[in-house]
Amino acid sequence: MAAYNASDVADLLRQIGAHDQLLADAYVYGTVTELQSESRKIASLHKSGLLRPDDELGDYRITAELKRMLNRLMRKQSSYRQLSDMGKVIDTLDDMVKDYRLSVQSNQQDDAEYYLDQLDDLLYEAKDNLNVSLENMHHAISSQFGFVSTLSAKVRENERALAYAQKLLTELQQVDPETCYEWADWACPSDFARKISGFVYWFNQTLPRLRFIIDNMRLSLFRLRRDEKQASLLRNMARYLHQHPEFEISDSLFEDEQLPQALKFAPPMPLKSYVDTRNSEIETPLVALVQALRKPAQSSRIVEREVSDLDVTALQEFVIDHDYFEEQTEHLFEQVIKHGMPISALQFWENALKSWINEEQLIEPTDWVELVFSSYCKLTNDQQDAIDIKPKGALVSGTTDNYTYSDVVVLLR
Q: Hey, which residues does 390 pair with through a beta bridge?
């Protein structure tokens, strides 16, 4: 506990007490919305790590650690499964999805709501725990493992964090998030489908972020090892100088009888670790030294271009075949624009069927309706702004927005 300051802990507790109603609403109702009057409070709680952004923009919810503590204090029934790795999380989610689907299909609304809340808590807890782990690793790299002081300890912490991050990446790469879409492969509510798609999107965004952290860890480990090697060399040099005092300059050197007379009365030598570029006296020799240190420019050898003969074949004419019924769809659109009246695709098919048979052209009504619809989709934006289609169909049983279309009506907007 020596690494923490008691005043910082007291400030955090005071912040929890000052915003008790806001945190209570986030715990009871799941989320709180960032209003104009509470934007500063929510920003402060987010900075302190008590609130985190939700999937929806502007919504915030309490962190998994705080919610777990409140669940334990309020004696609330929470998930008994332990989140050890992402594979077990996927298995747990699969069980909850099955329970939720059976509850919805059997019209057990209370049970379905319970399983949906459990699913939401598990998804958010898994994302929050992994986000906190990634943030901690990123903070450790940014601060150069400032929670330890010695270079050897920094290297050990970096190696340990790199091993953990690589193992975590290996575990996450074994999970295929696209299979999670099978959980929503039924007439499920939109809230449930949005939670599943949000989890898959977050998972796909997490892997590149983790790879970026691993690359930074490797670079940080290389720098720390280099600094440790340089520090070791400096320590060895200092130890050697302490063991050999003959390399030290004595303070009474000017009284030494063996010292030449010219050096006894000589002025002190100014020692500098850099070149004073403002001194014009050393400009000429300094320029000569820089020019001598420069590497001579090596001219690249010019490669001669190879010459070869080009055989030109005669141009061939291609005959473009026009599709007969695509021209008929264009004729249908022309009739709508010309007369300004809506025309049914099936009605146009019935009227033109006799002339088509005379020309030995025949198409089924279902294929004709699909061709009219596809031809409309191929129109330009300006053409679609002028012409509109109204499908006629019936709702597919068991779905909410799926229809079977039997006819389309072409009309002007």
A: 409
Q: Establish how many alpha carbons lie within 13 A of residue 97's alpha carbon, considering only the half-sphere containing its beta carbon.
A: 22
Q: Find the angle CA(48)-CA(52)-CA(184) to the nearest 5 degrees.
A: 165
Instruction: Read off the pTM.
Output: 0.46
Torsions phi, psi of 403, nearest 5?
A: -130, 150
Structure tokens at 199: 């989890």
Task: In whole angstroms, give the CA distance from residue 186 to residue 172.
Answer: 27
Task: Give the separation between CA 374 and CA 356, rounded to whole angstroms.
Answer: 20
CA distance 409 to 392: 8
C-alpha–C-alpha distance, residues 203 and 211, integer Å: 13
Mean pLDDT by 10 residues, the chain (413 residues): 66 81 83 76 82 80 80 54 64 87 88 86 82 82 81 87 87 84 86 87 88 89 89 87 75 78 69 76 83 72 79 71 81 86 87 85 86 86 84 75 78 84
CA–CA gap between residue 72 and residue 268 (Å, rounded): 75
CB of 396 closer than 8 Å to CB of 404 = yes
Q: Is the dihedral of CA 229, 235, 238, 240 positive or negative?
A: negative
DSSP 3-state percent helix, strand, coil across the chain (nearest 5): 60, 5, 30
Dist. CA 141–CA 371, nearest whole Å: 59
Measured distance CA(78)–CA(84) in Å, rounded: 16
Angle (deg, nearest 10), helices 324-339 and 345-358: 130
Taking alpha carbons only, the member of 130, 104, 125 closest to residue 116 is 104
Helices 20-29 and 6-18 pack at an angle, to 10 degrees, of 70
Asked if 159 and 74 count as a contact pair (C-beta separation under 8 A), the reply is no
Query: What six digits make up the tokens of 69?
Result: 């503590």
End-to-end CA separation in angstroms for the chain: 73
